[in-house]
């Protein structure tokens, strides 16, 4: 079959000659032959399918290094890689959409004509469980802060306590300054954990909500979780676990059901620890009267069946009763880990 010149191949593949020269250098689309006298690149028509795939993937915004991995896969594997890439793009876009909405509201100085005054009622409980000799969890709640941290390593208890202690001093949170406050809170918590756990690689998860009176700022890293029951009765998980199995679910390599029983389900990909490089997720939530938040360590979420967790969040009226029943349910399931939770109800200020 007659080879195509770079110009003809560029036209057929909808890639520019400049792009083809770059992809040759990167090993993405290597010419079938290079004329030794002129240096002209010549391409086999059979290479058009790969070149077009590269063009489509670039239009998706996929990085060149990942494109190489896709192109080297058989079709089924390539499809899986594209699916995983796009799932991550959508997740990142959703997070940026929330941030953009907050900034638009803040910069345009839009406020409700009659802003509703809200308050929270809260309760917290933390127990060793039936297996662990000590409790490396920490849980805390007051009128400005809700937080759960799950420490690990020789200094795990100190790490979880330090992460929450770093947030306690933040008592006033003007809504307009919330982004700056969240960034500072993340830095303070990271420095505190590094100070106590840097030498022995201890660390902690952290899921915390900072309260402004109408908006909640979420700081999250690791596999402790935050759930929301809306005023209309819907329940969903606000946070995403930073674990190996969750990344495999996101990539389509595991089903959610398989992840629950996977032997490495507790392996963290991100946490606050001595390297100081892992960065928590930061998100913003508008609060409404009737909302209920549950923050918990994986000693609760990984043990209590989802239907029981849902029942308690929906039907148990007082936060004190809810945390008591949730921890008791984890203990009844064998209490294999420390178990901690915070329940907070949002209501109109009296």
What keywords describe this structure?
12 helices; Phosphatase 2c, domain 1; 3 domains; alpha+beta; Multidrug-efflux Transporter Regulator, Chain: A, Domain 2
Task: Describe what you observe in this structure.
With 350 residues, this protein is of the alpha+beta class. The chain folds into 3 domains: 69 residues, Multidrug-efflux Transporter Regulator, Chain: A, Domain 2 (Orthogonal Bundle); 29 residues; 235 residues, PPM-type phosphatase domain (Phosphatase 2c, domain 1, 4-Layer Sandwich), CATH 3.60.40.10. 41% of the residues lie in helices and 22% in strands. It is built from 12 helices and 15 strands. The strands form 3 sheets. Strands 5, 6, 7, 8, 9, 12 and 13 form a 7-stranded antiparallel beta sheet that branches. It has a 5-stranded antiparallel beta sheet with strand order 4-15-14-10-11. A hairpin with a 3-residue loop joins strand 5 and strand 6. The mean pLDDT is 85.
Query: Can you give the mean pLDDT?
Result: 85
> How is the main sheet built?
7 strands, antiparallel
CATH class of the largest domain: Alpha Beta
- Helicity level, as a percent range? 40-55%
Please provide the ordered H/E string of secondary-structure elements.
EHHEEHHHEEEHHEEEEEHHEEEHHHE
- Specify the overall morphology: elongated
Structural class: alpha+beta
Cα-atom Rg, whole angstroms? 25 Å
CATH fold naming of the largest domain: Phosphatase 2c, domain 1
Total domain count? 3
What is the CATH homologous superfamily assignment of the largest domain? PPM-type phosphatase domain
Instruction: Provide a count of the helices.
Output: 12
> Which CATH-level-2 architecture of the largest domain?
4-Layer Sandwich
Would you identify the regions where 5 or more consecutive residues have pLDDT less than 50?
Answer: none
N-to-C terminal Cα separation, in Å?
Answer: 82 Å
- Compute the number of strand runs: 15
Approximately what portion of the residues adopt beta-strand conformation? Answer: 15-25%
């Amino acid at each position: 079959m007659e080879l195509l010149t770079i110009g003809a191949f560029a036209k057929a593949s909808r890639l520019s000659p400049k792009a083809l020269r770059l992809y040759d250098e990167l090993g993405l689309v290597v010419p079938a032959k290079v004329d030794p006298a002129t240096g002209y690149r010549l391409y086999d028509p059979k290479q058009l399918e790969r070149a077009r795939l590269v063009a489509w993937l670039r239009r998706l915004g996929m990085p060149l290094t990942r494109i190489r991995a896709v192109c080297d896969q058989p079709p089924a594997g390539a499809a899986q890689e594209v699916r995983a890439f796009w799932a991550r793009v959508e997740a990142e876009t959703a997070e940026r959409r929330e941030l953009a909405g907050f900034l638009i509201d803040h910069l345009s100085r839009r406020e409700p004509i009659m802003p509703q005054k809200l308050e929270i009622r809260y309760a917290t409980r933390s127990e060793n469980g039936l297996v662990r000799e000590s409790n490396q969890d920490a849980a805390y709640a007051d009128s400005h802060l809700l937080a759960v941290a799950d420490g690990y390593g020789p200094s795990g208890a100190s790490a979880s306590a330090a992460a929450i202690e770093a947030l306690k001093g933040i008592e006033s949170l003007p809504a307009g300054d919330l982004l700056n406050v969240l960034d500072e809170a993340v830095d303070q918590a990271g420095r505190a954990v590094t100070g106590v756990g840097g030498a022995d690689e201890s660390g902690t998860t952290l899921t915390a909500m900072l309260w402004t009176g109408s908006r909640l700022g979420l700081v999250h890293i690791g596999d402790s979780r935050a759930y929301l029951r809306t005023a209309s009765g819907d329940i969903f998980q606000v946070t995403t676990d930073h674990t190996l199995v969750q990344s495999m679910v996101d990539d389509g390599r595991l089903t959610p059901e398989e992840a629950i029983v996977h032997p490495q389900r507790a392996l963290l990909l991100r946490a606050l620890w001595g390297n100081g490089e892992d960065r928590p997720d930061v998100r913003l939530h508008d609060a409404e009267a009737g909302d209920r938040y549950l923050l918990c360590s994986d000693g609760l979420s990984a043990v209590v069946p989802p239907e029981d967790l849902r029942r308690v969040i929906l039907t148990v009226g007082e936060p004190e009763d809810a945390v008591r029943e949730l921890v008791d349910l984890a203990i009844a399931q064998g209490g294999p880990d420390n178990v901690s939770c915070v329940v907070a109800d949002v209501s109109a200020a009296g």
